[in-house]
């Protein structure tokens, strides 16, 4: 059985909800990623959302806001989605397809972030038929 841990990109990093978007963008650049999970302001590192480079550009800059005065937490909307590291790849696909999301944080049994699954990760591990079905459902 292929699990989320088998296909995820390991060593994902949090960005605190209090971090300004200009700093978030710099971290994304330095890490070579287009999205980062956002942790709540408390000490327990619980996910309160995920922020993408597109969120920063469209939701902040294009809306005329100053990214040095808007925080990652300000941009988080909706219920954060995640999956456990021991979940089957079919569960990963259901979660991503059902919520039409392209990146899915992965947590361990202690609810700590251990990785992120992206479309690129799926492309490396799915059959062509599975990948076509995923794309059809997420981009529908």
UniProtKB/TrEMBL annotation:
Record organism: Streptomyces axinellae
Coiled-coil zones: none
Organism domain of life: Bacteria
Keyword Lyase found: no
Entries under InterPro entries matching the protein: CBS_dom, CBS_dom_sf, Diverse_CBS-Domain
Key word Ribonucleoprotein present: no
Keywords annotated in UniProt: CBS domain
Name recorded for this polypeptide: Hypoxic response protein Hrp1
CBS domain sequence ranges: 8-68, 75-133
């Amino acid at each position: 059985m292929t699990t989320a841990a088998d296909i995820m990109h390991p060593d994902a990093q949090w960005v605190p909800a209090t971090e300004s978007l200009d700093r978030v963008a710099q971290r994304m650049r330095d890490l070579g990623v287009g999205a980062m999970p956002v942790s709540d302001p408390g000490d327990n590192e619980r996910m309160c959302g995920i922020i993408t480079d597109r969120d920063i550009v469209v939701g902040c800059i294009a809306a005329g806001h100053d990214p040095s005065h808007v925080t990652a937490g300000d941009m988080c909307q909706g219920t954060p989605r995640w999956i456990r590291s021991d979940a089957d790849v079919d569960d990963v696909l259901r979660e991503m397809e059902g919520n039409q999301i392209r990146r899915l944080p992965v947590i361990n049994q202690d609810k700590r972030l251990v990785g992120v699954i992206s479309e690129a990760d799926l492309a490396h591990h799915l059959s062509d038929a599975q990948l076509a079905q995923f794309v059809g459902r997420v981009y529908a």
